[in-house]
Amino acid sequence: NTIMKFTPNGVGSVFANTGLSWPAGLAFDGTGNLYAANFANNTVTKITPNGVSSSYVSTGLSEPYALTFDSAGNLYVGNDGVYNGDVNGTITKVTPAGNGSVFAAGFSDPQGLAFDAQGNLYVANTLYSVNSIMKIALNGSSALFA
User: CB–CB of 28/15 below 8 Å?
Assistant: First the structure.
């Protein structure tokens, strides 16, 4: 339950160890804040560049694993949900004001999220034999990418 920071020379130090519970995914916003998906307690922690931790999202998540930001500053959270008995993984969209809602559903253990330059979201489905990448277009439609 610790996030380490390493210098370019490979020297490590503790960056954060407060408010974390099995941190799985990490992402930076445009202002240098680090966000950690806390898989074990269904939350996302925000950590400032000075190392100050606070709860950012604490409702509506189910084993958050992957994090990414879009160009507008919205945070997207890949909810695994498998260990909680939810085999329908979801993607939660959290606005810069901290308001969350389900953006997309029907994923199998989404453990990787990334946006391309056109604003399409790619979701890595990793559960069991699914092993695929889904592409979600700006209009919300989804299709198998790979």
Answer: no
